[in-house]
Amino acid sequence: MTHSPLRPILCLLALSIGIPFVVRSAPPPPDALLLTMQRELARAMSSLAKSDPAPYFLSYAAEDRDGISIVAANGSLLVSQSAAVAKPMS
């Protein structure tokens, strides 16, 4: 069994065409909760910095969870649920 001399060239060409698609994949979307919290913290710091005395410490906390529950028995899907929670923490 002989291999074609073009085979290595074709393999390299196929790899070089496919690699840019992997490298140039779209960046993940920005996290809306994190961006909102960063903007609020910057707003609060700029407005509270004008007070006398200025605050020493300022913080925020939030909870952001995603959950999936799947239950199956004997090859049959019994329950499939998903939930998302994003809320401020006290």
Characterization of this structure:
- By secondary structure, the protein is of the alpha+beta class.
- It has a domain at 62-90.
- It has helices at residues 7-23, 32-48, and strands at residues 62-73, 76-88.
- It has a two-stranded antiparallel ribbon with strand order 1-2.
- A hairpin with a 2-residue loop joins strand 1 and strand 2.
- The longest helix has 17 residues, at 7-23.
- It is flat, with a radius of gyration of 27 Å.
- The model has no long low-confidence stretch (mean pLDDT 78).
For the secondary structure, the number of strands is: 2
Rg estimate, integer Å: 27 Å
Measured distance between first and last alpha carbons: 72 Å
- Return the structural class: alpha+beta
The tally of helices reads: 2
- In helices, the fraction of residues equals 25-40%
Features:
alpha+beta, about 90 residues, two-stranded antiparallel ribbon, 2 helices
Short synopsis of the structure:
The chain has two helices and two strands. It is an alpha+beta fold and 90 residues long.
Blueprint of the fold:
Elements: H1 7-23, H2 32-48, E1 62-73, E2 76-88
Antiparallel strand pairs: 1-2
